[in-house]
Specification:
Helices cover 47% and strands 22% of the residues. It is an alpha+beta fold. It has one domain: GIY-YIG endonuclease, CATH 3.40.1440. The longest helix is centred in the middle third of the chain and has 13 residues. The mean pLDDT is 95.
Length: 95
């Protein structure tokens, strides 16, 4: 079974959260509804700003672990490359 690593934010240049899931649409919906992690709820992290698909959930977990250990500047640089405006990508997932 595959998986996803993803990054949530509250605004451009705001707080970041790195997560992993087997069901990206459901998990992001949970975060947006306040049913996700307490950290996400506390900081209002409702904007999906990056996601990456992996064929194996273990690969997604490994990537999430790596991203969590990256300095913030590296994560911001990754976002600048992939999503420079920090646009919410969730609507593109649901149609």
């Amino acid at each position: 079974m595959g998986g996803w690593d993803y990054i949530m934010a509250n605004r451009r240049d705001g707080t970041l959260y790195v997560g992993v899931t087997a069901d990206l649409i459901r998990r992001v919906w949970e975060h947006r509804e306040g049913a996700g992690s307490a950290f996400v709820r506390r900081h209002g992290l409702t904007r999906l700003v990056r996601f990456e698909r992996h064929d194996e959930i273990r690969a997604a977990i490994q990537r999430e672990t790596s991203l969590k250990n990256w300095p913030r500047a590296w994560k911001v640089r990754l976002l600048a490359k992939d999503n420079p405006e920090w646009v919410d990508l969730y609507p593109s997932l649901i149609g």
